[in-house]
What we know:
The structure holds two protein chains of two kinds. The N and C termini of chain A lie far apart (66 Å). Chain A has two domains: 230 residues, Cytochrome Bc1 Complex, Chain A, domain 1 (2-Layer Sandwich); 179 residues, CATH 3.30.830.10. By secondary structure, chain A is α+β, with helices and mostly antiparallel strands. In chain A, strands 1-2-3-9-4-8-7 form a seven-stranded mixed sheet, with helices on both faces. In chain A, strands 11-15-12-14-13 form a five-stranded mixed sheet, with helices on both faces. Chain A has a three-stranded antiparallel sheet with strand order 6-5-10, with no helix packed on it. Chain A is built from 15 helices and 15 strands. In chain A, a hairpin with a 4-residue loop joins strand 7 and strand 8. The relative contact order of chain B is 0.15. Chain B is of the alpha+beta class. The radius of gyration of chain B is 23 Å and the shape is globular. In chain B, the strands form three sheets. Chain B has a six-stranded mixed sheet with strand order 1-2-8-3-5-4, with helices on both faces. In chain B, strands 9-13-10-12-11 form a five-stranded mixed sheet, with helices on both faces. In chain B, strands 6-7 form a two-stranded antiparallel ribbon. In chain B, helix 10 packs across helix 16, helix 11 packs antiparallel against helix 12 and helix 13 runs antiparallel to helix 15. At the A-B interface, helix 2, helix 4, helix 10 and helix 12 of A face helix 2, helix 4 and helix 13 of B.
Amino acid sequence: MNFSKLYEEKLGETLYSGKHESGLDVFVLTKKGFSKKYAIYSVKYGSVDTSYLVKGREVNDPMGIAHFLEHKLFELPGGGNAFDLFSKTGGNANAFTSHDMTGYLFSCSDYFSENLDILLSYVNDPYFTVENVAKEQGIIAQEIKMYDDDPEWRLFNNALEALYFENPVRNDIAGTVESISHITKDFLYQIYDTFYHPENMVLFVAGDVDPDEVARLVDKNVKKREHGFLVERKLYREPDEVKQKRIVKEMSVSQPSFILGFKENHPGLTGRELLKKNMETGLLLKMLFSPSASLYNELYKKGLINDTFGFDCISSDSYFATFLNSEAKEIDRTVEAMLSGIEKAKNTGFTKEEVERYKKASLGRQIRAFDSLEAVSNGFASNYFYGIGAFDFVNVYPEINEESLMKRLHEVFNEHYAVSEMKPLSK
Amino acid sequence: MKKISQNADLYILPADQFKTFSVSFHFFTELTKESVTKNALFPFLLKLGSKAYPDMLSINQRLQELYGGMFDCRVAKRGDLHAVSFVFEFLDPRFSDEQQMENCLLFMKEVLMNPLTENGGFSEAFVKREKENLTDYINGIINDKREYTNIRLTEEMFQGEQYALYEYGSVKDLEEISAVDLYESYLDIINTAPLTVFISGDVEENKFMDIFSDLFEKTRKPLPQNTIYAKHLSNPHKVEENQNLVQGKFALGFETGIEPSHEDYYALNLLNSVFGSGPHSKLFMNVREKMSLCYYVYSRLNRMKGTMFVGIGTDKENFQKAYEAILEQLELCKKGEITEEEIDFSKKFIIGILKQTGDNQHTLTDFYISGILAGRPLSPEEYIEKIEGLTKEDIVRVANNITLQTEYYLS
Lengths: 427, 411
């Protein structure tokens, strides 16, 4: 496998990239001076992939199956699990499932080759039995119940439920206790063969490592498949409107809190276009709702938001949503103040000086993020599947200006919003 | 390490692999009912305004001009000490401009040493707002059920002792505190509390010392003394609370009998990993993987207080079963039913983490502070040697000191 080398001067970072004969893309970010080595092996298969076409035939799977598969992949043929192997080589292993991907990862300081060998080998060698599936149903049921008691998670999931009619992003990543009860070992094998295809996966390694050693281990563990990747994904075309304007839940919490979520439709958006929209959204959120913004300061001073305030945005080729959240004693008053602050910004616009200051600060933060191997690697692993490269953001900054931000402001903060509320249990 | 003056230390952690330089100031004071709430509140006022940057907006806009710098404050319990920390992170001059270092040092000095005041106190408006904010924060403990269980267990286990105090103080005490009281607390901490400063990244030491000379010329008090437990409850006690949760949670508090500076602490660290820290641990392998009782179960040590907590989330009807399974795994450790493999895995687990300590500026700082306060300021390399030298006998010896003291059940 041949690597090409890319050096980005503004970041002082070097990235090696190569395509393996199996179709797997491999990236190595070389980090001198770090003891830690980090690797993430990801598949573009997440909780939203429950309904799709294989050779023209429609398949519908139970909610939560991607997450279930993530748990089960750790099982090794003949008993035992991958954690045992990592324990021998001092690797700290983990995995996670999000809406649109699953990542398997480890960090280590010594025995990098052995650890990477374990990662590539266990992910490429599934082993499911009736017994180990049943055992996992118990463990995951406890994980689901743990999230049921987590007010922040419930609030967020309710916001997605309110925004979307059909898009499976509205379903809980782990599914429900009921939905996972339908999962069998045959189901898992079928899913594995369908989605865990080298063309649908990526390997990203960061640390002081030799790219050729990474290539050797990929050669050893990843085999070319007889057929290409056959899945045809559904592009969900959602109505512009939200499903529900308001959704309320009561739990044992200290005071009311809410998420104000905005829904947009950009079906099929990928690559640099998607990256630019993401970056502009991030900048706008900071320009309105960070401590360096006057609107935020006003909301904070008036006690309409508190330190729990935060914002977020989720995006893919089939959904784009932006969220503002905080505790608030009177949710309606706070939401109204936010909406009127946004309208005011639409009328007044931004100055060039202001935009440049935000760009400078954001770029500085993004450069510093390269100090964290995990943050860079995980971010890249999820962007990769939308055709976004690790250093692309550097070249997008110059394309962002007052006009593009103003246009984006109107897109993001449109009239299609919903409020998810969490209230203390009524006495 | 460098002793700058009486009870003020500067640690310079050389590192050129980072794009960030970070500076953190840690002041230590005794954890007392009288001072805890004030010391938890005043640091947040520094984030709202200084004389040169008189509001939150101007402080944060200045941070933006400094290429997206970060200024934060934290308070924590470290045994019977209350640690008040100010943490700064900035983009390295190599990626910004030549003035960056000096500009950032001057900014730090301004926000730390020159807060906005009126009538001999902090701004009344800021104080009023931050009291509300802290009230929300303290009341919000209940929202994170897992952490709530640990906080409540701590309160129960250390009833009547200063360690039972919550690091952010109490809502009741907040009412009484005035803007002048808070300013006095600030002056007391800044001028007299023992201080440790950590610098990581490419910071010019002389420039730093010049700018912060005021801070280092003060006469500072010695570190207050710490006790591991002031009293022992001979009968384990048990507390139950109902919040209509979907999943039950409980936490068990154990005494280990090991002082923070004792040589046996390293063996205790290893025992903790064999027993309940990491996916190779007895708790994970048995209570989760074999018995399928939970998604999370872990044990964690509190070095400064000589305790070990076990936490688990499981259905209420399985409480008894899980309780017995946890104690059974501890019993196996006490009897020496520990394989060479378990010891090997646990050593590798701990050493792996220690080796990566230097890759994160905050982790490294935190590692040193723990060692300093425990009276054993080892480097990660020295700590690794301690772990490597341990045997099964060491683990069994410390395991046999461990006794269950308090149980906290939430459902």
